[in-house]
Amino acid sequence: MKHLLVSLDKLHDFDEIIDVRSPLEYADDHIPGAINAPVLSNEERVQVGTLYRQASPFEASRLGAALVARNIAQHLETRFADRPQGWRPLIYCWRGGKRSGSMTLMFNMIGWRARQLDGGYKSYRSATLQALATLPAALHCVVLVGPTGSGKTRLLNALAQAGAQTLDLEQLASHRGSLLGALPGVAQPSQKHFDTLLAARLRALDASQPVFVEAESRKIGAVELPPALLQAMHEGVCVNVASTREDRAAFLQQDYAQLFENPEWLKAQLQRMLGLHSREVIQGWQQMVDDGRRIDLARELIDRHYDPAYARSSHSQYQGLLQALPMPFRPNDADVVEQAHGLLSALECKTR
């Protein structure tokens, strides 16, 4: 079987990548682009593991072999029934052991040029952690700082449209970063899968060009940023994004439109702020939700929550904050891309 093993650097040499782990393992994290064709279901994996511990490895292997053979047969009759003769799949499981080895062997017996990933998912996870620990040090970060509602994410998107290189951490995390940052009906990725998505994005960046990124705390919702990336951000050039109070209120009203479409969910999120604010204040905000007073709620959140919280956070870890380039930003205007071009020109002049 050794001749069927390939290393991680051959990942892109195949027509398809197949993850044969259980659905729960796949959902926790997987190689980007891999499809899930489990050779053991969640329940079967538990069953085999329990038998291994409570009876014997032999009994567990015999049961596992029968289940794996049955599941591979089902995949052959359904999911892979239309694959051509010259098909070249790469197959992996947790450690590159029996689960992926069984499917690789059977596929080659059929005539496909299947290969098994040496070390399995575990080798990919190690490479991901290595990338997160080393790649950020080479980045030249330009960090957008400013209070909530100033439109930093919109400016980041406009910079991307203007041709700048950007790293949208909140998009990768499926979370806006603030206490009301959760997206209704959208689950955040697991920490492992966020790491995978972030590492893939870091590998795609050109370290010779600046990388624009929003200022973030250590956590975005439930996921954590790697220390090396936080350090690169803290050492970066800062841009102070400043919008008027009314522009911010109007922006938040638009940005939270999806939240207002789910009033009970929004009120539940506001309830979580109890302890930071009195019961009376929270109830007043919840009443604004019921009354559809979106702009009033946005103003209240700016004045009583976001700005005081921003004032309390010194951002002292951002070394370039005192020399930050001011960026007056109108997030609701149609010319945001032109404003982004203006920022790029101002930064170019500053570095000359």
TrEMBL record:
GO molecular function: tRNA 2-selenouridine synthase activity
UniProtKB keywords: Selenium
InterPro entries xrefs: AAA_SelU, P-loop_NTPase, Rhodanese-like_dom, Rhodanese-like_dom_sf, SelU
Pfam families in alphabetical order: AAA_SelU, Rhodanese
One of the GO BP terms on file: tRNA wobble uridine modification
Database matches in SUPFAM superfamilies: P-loop containing nucleoside triphosphate hydrolases, Rhodanese/Cell cycle control phosphatase
Signal sequence range: none
Gene3D superfamilies, per the entry: P-loop containing nucleotide triphosphate hydrolases, Rhodanese-like domain
Location of the Rhodanese domain: 17-133
Record protein name field: tRNA 2-selenouridine(34) synthase MnmH
Organism: Achromobacter spanius
